[in-house]
Amino acid sequence: MQRTYEDKVKALLDRMTAAEKFGQLQQLTWTGDTGPGGGQTALTEAAARAGLLGSVLNIHGAEHTNALQRMAVEESRLGIPLLFGLDVIHGFWTTFPIPLAQAASFDPAVAGSDAEVSAKETRSNGVHWTFSPMMDVTHEPRWGRIAESSGEDPYLNSVLAVARIHGYQGPADGSELASADRVAACAKHFVAYGGAEGGRDYNTVDVSEQRLRNLYLPPFKAALDAGVATVMAAFNTVSGVPAHGNAHTMDSILKQEWGFEGFVVSDYTGVEELIAHGFAEDGADAARLALNAGLDMEMVSTHLADHGEALLADGRVDESRLDDAVARILRLKFALGLFDHPYADESAAVTAPTAEARAAARTAGARSMVLLRNEDAVLPLSRETATIAVVGPLADSDDLHGTWAGPGGLRFPSVSVLDGVREAASGTVVVPAGPGVAEAVAAVESADVTVLVVGEPPALSGEAAVRSDIGLPAGQEELIAAVAATGKPFAVVLLNGRPLTIGGWLDSAPAVLEAWHPGIEAGHAVADVLFGAVGPGGKLPVSFPRSVGQIPVYYNRESTGRPYRAADPGEKYVSKYLDLEDGPLFPFGYGLSYTTFSTGEPAPDRDSVTVEELERGAAVEVAVEVTNTGTRTGDEVVQLYVHDVSASIAQPLRRLCGFERVTLEPGASATVTFRLGARDLGFWTNDPAGTFTVEPGRIDLYAGTSSAAGSRRTLTVR
Fold first, then answer.
1. 458, 416, 521: which is closest to 94 by C-alpha?
2. Cα dist from 359 to 120, 356, 536, 661, whole Å
3. Which residues are catalytic?
4. 630: burial class by Cβ within 10 Å (0-12, 13-18, 19+)?
5. Alpha-carbon distance 471 to 319, whole Å?
6. CB proximity list for 248: less than 8 A, separation 6 or greater
7. What are residue 431's DSSP bridge partners?
């Protein structure tokens, strides 16, 4: 967002008292789904009328937001409008697949479609700001919030974050923020929240500078380049310093090094929690530390508003820092057009998912699914099949929205898989089953083929939903075994918000479709893939571990001095487990299709490039040919990885630097071209001041259809 409206901002700042300035830094929460009159609303209304409030979260509905906005605009001294925010993570009324599922599409258009639909519905209901996208790179499937992430790779997270930001906000210059179908985005959680120890929410992160900059920060830098309006601080510590009081990350990197001109908002009571962290002595100390470190707005807790004036009078916070924070907030309010148009048009509010929005959600759901196994071509199912059984604990569930489903998740049920199959195979007898194993087995034995729907209900993923055991919930593996024992063909549909450990039953299932939590059109999207109306083309955005004891397991790891070698599995003194096969059950980027593909070797347009050329902006173009060698039209995701073989800091064995999803008819070929520049061939060092380097040496290029791709060529950096 460009630094505009400066004259208006300065004129307003000159008229504001210290109390009014600190009021702009305060965000309070609304309680309930109704207008004024309950919960924390008394404090919110009083602060709005007094001009001592900048923002409110968890309120929506044009009638409700307008009522509160009138208190601020028409009753306060300066009439500064409120900024209304809400967690619109993957849909407002129309829930799309969870973000982890969208990442599996390897298609930025899927994320962009979600953001565009969400922005239109959200803004029409009086909300100006979404706390999305979440771009926490994570290697931790126990962490419930992996459902909100785009997985384990910084490049994939970056691409999808940019797509969402453009969908929410429009162009990077912020020129469309005032439009009726745009909202301000929020890049979160800054930073390294995906590295929380043990996968436990709010937990410690101890991270080196090079890993911070090479793994966790790139999606945020991409978000800033895309014009993201705001950034949210993370709950965790970063190498001992809580993110809400971390001047190195919030000020030195975000604002000074990167030149971020938006504002940083705390997470829910994040300033208050500096005390529990053992970083601040009391509320006044927490306010001082947070503001001086670069935080601009406090969510829910009230220490800046309560203690700000005293801190300012004592010289413990600087007036220029206060004015900077206020200016950042006012700048966004001007960009959103709130001073000219503070009220939402109640007659234009979107009150339910439209047919077009549902169609977009259905398309996104189908494109996000990953075919993990398909022995004996059980899938796709034939619409001519006489009898299909649909069984399992989630078969008729109408709550497949996923975590953080937004207002729509409470008001509009999702389509069940049972109903989706019934509609897709209207001429087929579809046999449902009761809740017990015996009933399921009876249905399976009476049918020609079975769809077995298992997985996690949405409540088992998301915030404060960490699991120490990420297998299927109790009884589901036994159900799979009972169905397999019938000898009848069946396909397992997995509905879940994280990678699961499925090795215990995988070999007994002829076909397995990873469907995640697909959103409001879940059943239709699942049926589209099961019957082949949409060919599965998704890829895993995160590795599936063989066992919880193997976590963390991820593709972009560094080598050890004694690496495991598949050619010599019996070698003892190497980095491995005694009781577990090496590597994940399914690697990052993996996914099957109803057809087959072949990819050629990566073909760079030159054999070498100099450091000086790269520093001047030169790029190496790498072409990869892909061919549909099967008998059906299908999608493939061509992936390009690099490995810096010898560097001053040990580099990942593979690092994703490009991908493209293509659709090919049988026998057709296409050439996908990637550009590799300095950012792809260099890395950040451990220098806290931030040093990026490109070093001479050999770079191996790998191309294929997963992170295990074997096609390789070498590029030399001179």
1. 521
2. 15, 5, 17, 20
3. 267
4. middle
5. 53
6. 238, 241, 688
7. 389
Query: Which DSSP helix (H) or strand (E) runs through 577?
Result: none
Q: What does pTM read for this prediction? A: 0.97
Nearest alpha-carbon partner for 409 in 167, 87, 85: 87
DSSP string, 516-569: ----TTHHHHHHHHHTTSS------SSPBPS-GGG-S--SSPBP-SS---TT-T
Per residue in 431-468, pLDDT (tens digit) is: 998 889 999 999 999 999 999 999 999 999 999 999 99
Q: Which two tokens stand for residue 543?
A: 């590795």
C-alpha distances out from residue 587 to 46, 100, 426, 541, 606, Å: 54, 15, 37, 9, 30
Taking the C-alpha atoms of residue 95 and residue 80, their distance in angstroms, rounded to an integer, is 33
DSSP letter, residue 498: S
What the block records as the tokens of 569 is 């599995």
Instruction: Name, in order, each residue with C-beta under 8 angstroms of 7's C-beta and a sequence gap of 6 or more.
Output: none
In 3D space, the residue among 98, 129, 84, 190 whose CA is nearest the CA of residue 465 turns out to be 98
| Residues facing 652 on adjacent strands | 558
Q: What pLDDT score does 2 carry?
A: 55
**Per-residue pLDDT, 1:** 53
Please enumerate in sequence order all residues whose Cβ is within 8 A of that of 347, keeping only pairs 6 or more positions apart, or say none: none
Q: What is the pLDDT of residues 499-515, one digit of tens each?
A: 999 989 999 999 999 99
Half-sphere exposure of 706 (CA within 13 A, CB side): 21
Contact 46, 30 (CB under 8 A): no
* Contact by Cβ (8 Å): 243, 191: yes
Q: How many Cα neighbours within 13 Å face the side chain of 391?
A: 29
Q: Is residue 410 exposed (0-12), middle (13-18) or buried (19+ Cβ within 10 Å)?
A: exposed
Burial of 436 from C-beta contacts in 10 A (0-12 / 13-18 / 19+): exposed
